[in-house]
Amino acid sequence: VRTMPHRCKIADYPDDTFGVKDPGHQRLVEMTIPRDSMGDYEKCSFYSYQTNRTILMFNSSDLQENFTIGVNATLQKCSEWVYEKSVFKETYTSKHNLVCDDAILVSHSRMIFYLGVLVGDIVFGWSSDRVGRKITVCVGLLLLIVAAFAVSWAPEIISFTILEFIIGGTNHGSFLCTNVLGQELVGPSKRKYTGTIQHMFFSIGLVYQTIVYYFSRDWQISCIVLAASCVIFIPYWWLIPESPRWLISQGRNEEANAILQKMAKVNGTKISPDVVANLTIKKEKTGSFKDLLKSKTMCLRAVILCFNWMAVCLMYYGVTFNAGNIGDFYLNFFLMGIVEFPGILSTILLIDRIGRKKMHLMCMMLGGIACLCTIFTVTFARETLRPLTIALAVIGKMASSAAFVCVYIFTVELFPTVIRNVALGGGSCFARIGSMIAPYFVMLGMSIGGAIGEALPLVIFGATSVIAGLMCLYLPETLNQRLPETIEDGINFGRVKKTMVVERNGVDETQKNLVGDTIDNDEL
Predict the structure, then answer these.
(1) pLDDT digit string (tens) for 91-143?
(2) What Cα–Cα distance (Å) separates residue 485 from each residue in 1, 105, 285, 293, 515?
(3) Exposed / middle / buried, residue 353 (Cβ in 10 Å: 0-12, 13-18, 19+)
(4) What residues form the membrane-spanning segments (predicted)?
């Protein structure tokens, strides 16, 4: 649904194109299409003359002296457009003329796609706990394939948006379920690698998507190729096992044992034939969203982390959406995908050394400041410093990729076991809000145009990231800390005992308060 550069079509000129064909065509464009304050052609209006300007143009050499732009003309909105086709031959936007008054529909479509992601996370999370990880993933992937092919022939924006909603829900819902399945199929020491590798394949998908766009340059061909790529998921039904942990939780120990025995055989090890015969998983009492609001401490931490989830997602998707507005679309989009690898790898290497809080704060500040700095490169030397503008945007994308990993781990470790899923779900919901509003900021920049329009979205993303990062200063560090289990543990997590200096018989003595008289470390 990318919007290509465009202007009104000149009705009196046969086979009008966005590019100028000859001097006569150039004069007719100058005469018909007004310019905006930045000197660019208006996209939605044209001058309508009562005089037959086509005949005058070819029969009078002093046409520009006789008819200057705007004389004896009325400004009207156009109903047909011509598009610049050097980047794309055709997009869904250009095919259905979703520009000018209808341009907002493009942002609505993107917003509803991410609304589908939110709904998919909820529905697939519920389904995977009820009917199993494997069947939920396989059904979701099958629906994704069907919707991906169907959207290639969507006749109008309503059906297109509905299919995008389904694609968003099934795509990300399946992604989360495979993440859970991968975590449950390996031991504790390998779990951080399964999640990281999966996110790296997400980045590989972005790079692959760019390659498909580059060689097809047509929205329909791209959709068909990407949908066909998903067909490789069909054999998953026969290739991936169900989660043994989920089977045990459902009392299906024999099935779990068969899977574990097969895994042991493949790994060249042996386990007892009845290793899970009498094994049960204790179902602990879980908390609710209300428990997050029971204390000022828990509520404040929830607000800070939810805002951070939104800020991370806003910058991650916003910078990606804005890639085509700051230079070469394909190169920038490729860089936005490839740069995620160093971002994720740096998190793996540093997060256990410098801590969750410092790592996340560093990522948010680095990405935010980089995006904010684009206002200088764009304002003072837009074309000359364009490579620097792109580099700053790429740094913002890399930092947001790293921050995604940090905020996930930070949320899991900061909240107690009984409400950990609630906190993680709440953060994920706020993340979807960030992804839903990101397209509107990009559209705002495109509508303003010029240097200001180019920098404005990045400035908004950067400022939000800096504010979110600074808010994290009020959160405690979770590195090498015993994870909280109960609500009380969560409230007291990160607190230190306050020391008091009292005077006895003229001598200063230091005493420690009772455990109940603790205060937050940010209050010291």
Answers:
(1) 999 899 988 888 888 888 988 998 998 888 888 888 887 888 899 999 999 99
(2) 46, 46, 11, 17, 18
(3) exposed
(4) 135-154, 193-213, 219-239, 298-317, 329-351, 363-382, 388-410, 422-443, 455-475
Burial of 183 (0-12, 13-18, 19+ CB in 10 A): middle
Instruction: Indicate the DSSP class of residue 46.
Output: E
How does DSSP classify residue 156? S
The H-or-E segment that residue 102 falls in is none
CB 364 within 8 A of CB 311: yes
Measured in residues, the chain has a length of 524
DSSP state of 235: T
Cβ atoms of residues 478 and 423 within 8 Å? no
Q: Residue 72 contacts by C-beta under 8 Å, 6 or more apart in sequence?
A: 49, 50, 51
Q: What is the C-alpha separation between 184 and 190, in angstroms, rounded?
A: 10
Question: Tokens in use for 403?
Answer: 């921050």
Tell me what pLDDT residue 144 has. Answer: 94
> For residues 115 and 165, what is the distance between their CA atoms, to the nearest angstrom?
7
Buried b vs exposed e over 77-93: b needs ≥16 C-beta within 10 Å?
ebeebbbebebbeebbb
Burial 376-411 (b: 16+ CB within 10 A, else e): ebbeeeeeebbeebbbbbbbbbbbbbbbbbbbbbbb
Token duo for residue 464: 């939000």
Q: How far is CA 270 from CA 183, 239, 396, 519, in A?
A: 22, 22, 48, 51
Single-letter code of the amino acid located at 69: I
pTM beyond 0.85, yes or no = no
Structural contact between residues 429 and 423, judged by C-beta atoms closer than 8 angstroms? no
Least confident of 302-311, 330-339, 494-503: 494-503
Closest by Cα among 318, 522, 329, 290 to 423: 290
The one-character DSSP state at 198 is: H
CA proximity to 133, closest of 280, 229, 271, 259:
259
Could you tell me the two tokens for 467? Answer: 């504010």
Averaged pLDDT for residues 381-389:
79
Instruction: Give the other-Cβ count within 10 Å of 163's Cβ.
Output: 22
Burial of 123 (0-12, 13-18, 19+ CB in 10 A): middle
Residue 482: the pLDDT is 77
pLDDT digits (tens, 9 = 90+) for 73-93: 788 888 889 998 888 899 999
* The pLDDT of residue 349 is above 80: yes
Give the tokens for residue 217: 């340059």
